């Protein structure tokens, strides 16, 4: 798109567009997002954010951080946008902040994934060992009772190894992502994992958020409406439901 004035040269509408720093998780959550071997952000989230930026005239600098560090940068106001985000995560740290959230982008279901669907029949009196990614402190309130022990690791691959060796009883992770990775990563277990619905789990929607740029969140909401067909196409490309529950 170009804008012209009589007697002057034409210039791109976004010639003076700002560069937005987008904080993302340095985590393998394929097909939603992951880092490739070169550390490049890939997946549905990358395609969505890039398409939004191209259509709205923004430049994006997407920077991955470990989950805990990403929260520090975001709550300190040092990044423009965060994805994914939810008002349900790290609720206590959000109470004094004015955070703008987009409309829902993608539904998520995070819970305890186990090797057997009958595995909820756990040995009474023995702590249930939950494998969880470092920085996922939102799960602390879910499994705060004495019957749970949290075992933290830096990556999903480490959690897989702990589960395979019987050092944890289940893995807290996204149900869609964990089984996608089982099907596509030869280094991981080939046995499908099952959500244990007898144990607490989290359900909600991924959103784009910002402390510094609520105006961009408003633009993104408009993008989701005006380009709903393109968003649905990206979801199909990455094997995700095209509609929200």
Automatic annotation (TrEMBL):
<keyword id="KW-0732">Signal</keyword>
<feature type="signal peptide">
    <location>
        <begin position="1"/>
        <end position="17"/>
    </location>
</feature>
<comment type="similarity">
    <text>Belongs to the bacterial solute-binding protein 3 family.</text>
</comment>
<protein>
    <submittedName>
        <fullName>ABC-type amino acid transport substrate-binding protein</fullName>
    </submittedName>
</protein>
<dbReference type="Pfam" id="PF00497">
    <property type="entry name" value="SBP_bac_3"/>
</dbReference>
<dbReference type="InterPro" id="IPR001638">
    <property type="entry name" value="Solute-binding_3/MltF_N"/>
</dbReference>
<feature type="domain" description="Solute-binding protein family 3/N-terminal">
    <location>
        <begin position="22"/>
        <end position="105"/>
    </location>
</feature>
